[in-house]
User: Fold these one by one.
Assistant:
Number 1:
Amino acid sequence: MSEKEMRGGAEEVRDRLPDEQTICDLAELFKMFGDPTRAKILGCLQVRDLCVGELAEILDMSLSAVSHQLRVLRGAKLVRRSKEGKEARYALDDDHVIKIMEYGLTHVREDRQ
Amino acid sequence: MSEKEMRGGAEEVRDRLPDEQTICDLAELFKMFGDPTRAKILGCLQVRDLCVGELAEILDMSLSAVSHQLRVLRGAKLVRRSKEGKEARYALDDDHVIKIMEYGLTHVREDRQ
DNA sequence: ATAACACTTGAACGCTTTTTCAAGTGTTCA
DNA sequence: TGAACACTTGAAAAAGCGTTCAAGTGTTAT
């Protein structure tokens, strides 16, 4: 039984939705891909593991900006860091990343036909 | 040939990236899923087509807030509107939406194990 | 020990986004 | 024609985000 009466069939829709926390986690995940800088970083790391300086050079951005975004991506468990001497090497931490981006790319490209 | 000399192999990574416009389009797409309200709306519309008032009721939000987000989603061509008398009925405009969300959900749920 | 290198961090700034609020449009019904 | 309904819109307030700047950490080389 739901808290309030709703007009015809509306609560049926609500009951079929994933719960609040799941939706928010989902949104958090997609938000990671929702910024060009982060999308580029994830794209680069699909080619190979890279350290911060290399990423900064490739993206033509400051070390700091890249480092901040890597931190965000690390918080979302999408990338992983391994220290090698004074370098910090980053890698994708998740197989899904590639699939999700591929799927998005397919969509974007189909939209252009 | 690239504009500048880069340290070992970095330009090779850059050359393998999708072009700027594609990355930005991709980020724009994922940004749509990157907000809980929009994610919920898209989730609801996967169950069935709905009008603005129903969505507002299900999400427990104002008509205005929902309408604004539907506008954004319409701009991204993820939902479609059809007027029926005084109602505005919204539907998913894209098959990819379901797949993309499903994929994201799989990821989110696996992350919890 | 000192300097150079490769980041990381926190605070601040400007920009964008989301929600609210109030007013406006278009349709239906009496 | 007027009132009710179902949105839509624009502007403004509130919140959130991304980049920069300056300072800080830890590692390596001299």
Number 2:
Amino acid sequence: MPDGQESIGLFKKYLTGNNIFRNREVLRHSYRPQILPHRRPQIDQVAAILAPSLKNETPSNILIYGKTGTGKTAVVRYVGTELENASSHMGTLCKVVHINCESIDTQYRVLAQISKGLSDDDEIASDRARSVIPMTGWPTDQVYQELKNQLEATGGVLVIVLDEIDKLVKKSGDETLYNLTRINTDLKASKVSMIGISNDLSFKDFLDPRVLSSLSEEELVFPPYNAPQLCDILQQRADIAFNDNVLEDGVIPLCAALAAQEHGDARRALDLLRVSGEIADREENTRVSEKHVKKAQAKIESDSMVECIATLPTQSKVVLYSMLLLDQMDQNIFTSGEVGRIYKEIAPAMDLDVLTNRRITDLISELNMLGVINTRVVSRGRYGRTKEMWFDSNTNKIWDVIRSDPRLSAHGLDKMDIAWVKALFR
DNA sequence: ACTCCACCGGAATACTTGGCGT
DNA sequence: ACGCCAAGTATTCCGGTGGAGT
């Protein structure tokens, strides 16, 4: 058993080598800054709509759209806590419950979560009316009844924030929303208002028109950030996150520019900055330079590529493997016909169903869609029409991922090497 | 039990240009 | 020299099937 000295020594160099970060947590998605740059108009709009609740009136329901990383959740959370603060100063009762529908995605769990949020930090209720809805078991209408009782018992205005509401609608339909929009008619002493947050504009199509009109009494659209705005956001966080003078001048503008040409996604920009810092830190540099940002960009891209390939269905991986083999041979460009021929040799050796060409071309275009390969249809006159494809990033990572798939490697994938392919073509 | 969706293959049709017939 | 043909898939349309969810 190693003594304490040795155990500490193992980690020591990683702990002391930290010249870059002062507080890395600030760069994470979960961090909520005190100030939200360039979102003043949105904050004011939301505040204006919610303001009536301080006079114990029901605010309009709001539907908020915007791409990922445009500050929707941050703005709503910010206004929400401000509203709760203001209400406690003014002696009115306003409460905000935030629900992320990505994880809470059934009607039952949404209701239970609302109920839980109601009684959570409410000291008055916790004394007597802490009737907690069990995580499962009750019929839905009983849950509704219980929720109404709780609302009536506490009174005041409740604002329900349904984050990623499109996920909820997709998974369990609009029944939940329908019920929630109607709940006000059954309440006397209390009022309920809803805020829906979505990054998918098309989710309205799945909604009952009545629900939609009720839910979207007010609609807000959050525009993406442009590069200068992203600069401000990054600068604000970098001041806290990094030690003084470790960022070279071009770093933040470059992160902002790269993220802006993507989607104006602030999360993406923060990731870029954080990973840049991590790389510089690991390389034991004292400053973060644009070089590190470039590396960070490549790393993030390659990580998502690896992630993407790893989750591919087995058949797609076999198709991809066929292409890798072709790529290893002299030709960097290959046709769907060649891929198909190799695939048809590999697949049976893997105990897999052999798909037809029809299906393979689908998988190929899917791979193209995902950006793993590039394709181009060409007509070769007498020699027919085909699709050419090629890799444009280096294939080592892809090799690694494919080889690490247990179902493939179990069948001796590595036996099918280049010589094997060449023999195939005779 | 029933619906929905992802996956699959067959048949028909589309596409394009090098080669071949004239 | 000119124009039509044919190769070889791509692409579209559609219908079947098994499994997951309700």
